[in-house]
Design a protein that fits this description.
Radius of gyration: 17 Å
Helix content: under 10%
Number of helices: 0
Strand content: over 45%
Number of strands: 7
Shape: elongated
Oligomer: single chain
Length: 101
């Protein structure tokens, strides 16, 4: 079981913004979040889960300056193992939607 959180600088050397990130990973579930360390931070959340060969996931961004969700996306897919025409396993997307304001 891998868990962790970090504070990392992002951006260029003239404008550096810090953010805190946290990851929570267990079998069949992954959660990720990051929060900007500013006076009006954006909060990013992402989650994925699956059962057998089916995977589901989503992400959203909340902008505290606007007081609204400014981006979200959701998707689902099937993991292809062994019977793929390619030599590697991969996820075939069935559904994907992204909404950006």
């Amino acid at each position: 079981m891998d868990q962790g959180s970090t504070a990392v600088p992002t951006g260029n050397s003239e404008h550096c913004a810090w953010q805190v990130s946290a990851d929570y990973v267990v079998p069949h579930l992954t959660l990720k979040t990051s929060v900007g360390l500013t006076n009006q931070p954006k909060v990013d959340l992402a989650a994925t889960t699956g059962y057998k060969d089916i995977v589901f996931g989503g992400e959203a961004t909340y902008d505290s300056a606007k007081g609204d969700v400014t981006k979200w996306a959701a998707g689902a897919g099937e993991l292809c193992k062994g019977s793929c025409p390619w030599s590697q396993s991969f996820v075939t997307p069935y559904l994907f939607h992204e909404y950006v304001l």
